[in-house]
Amino acid sequence: MAVKIKEILKKLKIWRSLKVRLFVIIFLVGLLPCFLIKGGILQNYEDRAVAVRQSDVQNQLKIIANHLITYNYLQDTSSEVINAELEQLSNLYNGRVLIINGNLKVVKDTYGISEGKTIISEEVIKCIKGTGMANYDRNNGFIEITTPIVETVSAKMATEEIPEGTELTRGVMLTSVSTDIIVNTMDILNRKALLMEIIMFFCILVIAMVLANILIRPFDRISKAISEIKDGHVDEPISVPDYLETEHIVNAFNSLLNKMKILDDSRQEFVANVSHELKTPITSVKVLADSLLAQKDVPAEVYQEFMEDIAHEIEREDKIINDLLALVKLDKAAAELNINVVNINELAEIILKRLRPIARKNDVELLLVSTREVIAEVDEVKMSLILTNLIENAIKYNKEHGKVTVTLDADHQFFTVEVSDTGIGIPRESIERIYERFYRVDKSHSREIGGTGLGLAITRSAVLLHRGSIKVDSKPGEGSRFLVKIPLIHGAL
After folding, report:
1. How many Cβ atoms sit within 10 Å of the Cβ of residue 213?
2. CA 442 to CA 429: how far, in whole Å?
3. What DSSP character marks residue 220?
């Protein structure tokens, strides 16, 4: 049943509202104490009223029990005084009194229907043994009391077996007392309590609605602010510090908004950079072609020189496009890795061998330091891309007679590739931006050095695909050190 109720509540959209849930919680929290207090008060009154009535009746029964012994009523029931007392007690409490002797025989019944009969019950037998009892029967509306009729042995009646002062139970008074007055009072209290409950119900209903609206207002303000941002009316950070929860939500949203702004700015900058980078070679080609077309009888040497420049610009355009395509592939969330077991030492030696002609041209020494043999599960093509870009950058941005050192190392979980150089270094303010697309530290020498400004962006993406990390430490004028850390086993982390 409970499961069905939960399923129904899930289907009801209104139950998904925080305002409705707050209203229900406040309403129940306010209403439940009313029912509990009402039940507690009525129960306490009933218990107290029954206890007082029992006490009053028992006190009078003890007095009558003493009179029964004094007037020897158990042997002779003709005493008008005792009969009057019994009748008065019966009428006062709307009850019934049975006088039972030691043989369990009824000698007097105020209702006059059980006299001469024998009563055998647990309560009567216990009372004859000296233990009086009182029971409240709520369902039938009466209190049943058993009172022992006790005789104290006097000096005249004393014997060796029964010394003076011994109390002997000669009989039992079995009394039933009506609780109609208590029940009637309970009915009156119940009606008044019901009236109060109805009043409290509507008061709590109004209070719950008001409080639910007040408590939900900060969330409404957040929703309204987000809608305004979505519609483009404002782009300022949201501030709703009413609750810690709203503050956390707002901080998270502002952080997301800031990242979106950064991403949007980055995209705009990227588009502008791509346009500029692609337009520059095309502009150069157009200028060179127009120059050739404007001249007549161009010497073969000039024509050759212009065509070499055009070929160079086309090659540069092709490299930019290829790097952009590589970056787009790496940026895909579902970019796949072709994982194989690769000897990183051998791969590094192959790449160094390929780049040594460029290093010799720039008078840069290349050195490979292998602390131990490194075997890892990586994408060989992308790993080659990482090593090539880092080493090629170290060569290009090095000084004359410089040095590039590639150090390989590993532990039980990761392997590291450190590429350090003695080059021009990276200014502190540029460290955080070197992985941005088309960003160049030294823009004045970018054309001379070559490249597209996408190398480190491609490298970082390839490292992240391997669930690795890349860090840089650099001092201007002294050189840079790039440290790549990649798991030995793919998917182990």
Report:
1. 13
2. 12
3. H
* 339-487 topology per CATH: Heat Shock Protein 90 (3.30.565)
Q: pTM, whole model, 2 decimals? A: 0.49
Q: What class, spelled out in words, does domain 21-184 have in CATH?
A: alpha beta
pLDDT digits (tens, 9 = 90+) for 74-131: 888 888 888 898 888 888 888 899 998 888 898 898 888 888 888 888 888 888 887 8
Query: What's the CATH number for 245-331?
Result: 1.10.287.130
Closest CA to 239 of 229, 225, 228, 227: 225
Q: Using pLDDT thresholds of 50, 70 and 90, give the confidence band for residue 8.
A: low
106 in Cβ contact with 116 (< 8 Å): yes
User: Does residue 169 contact residue 130 with C-beta atoms inside 8 Å?
Assistant: yes
Tell whether the model's pLDDT for residue 332 goes beyond 60: no
The two three-digit tokens of residue 26, written as one number: 């406040």
CA distance 8 to 314: 67
Q: Is the pLDDT of residue 404 over 60?
A: yes
Rounded distance between C-alpha atoms, residue 304 and residue 460, angstroms: 40
Location of structure tokens 């306490």: 44
C-alpha torsion angle, residues 55, 57, 63, 64 (rounded to 10): -160
Tokens of 256: 């997301």
Closest C-alpha among 92, 66, 102 to residue 81:
66
pLDDT of residue 409 exceeding 70, the answer is yes
Three-state helix/strand/coil letters over 238-257: CCCCCCHHHHHHHHHHHHHH
pLDDT of residue 376: 92
Q: Identify the pLDDT of residue 444.
A: 43
Is residue 471 within 8 A of residue 483, CB to CB? The reply is yes
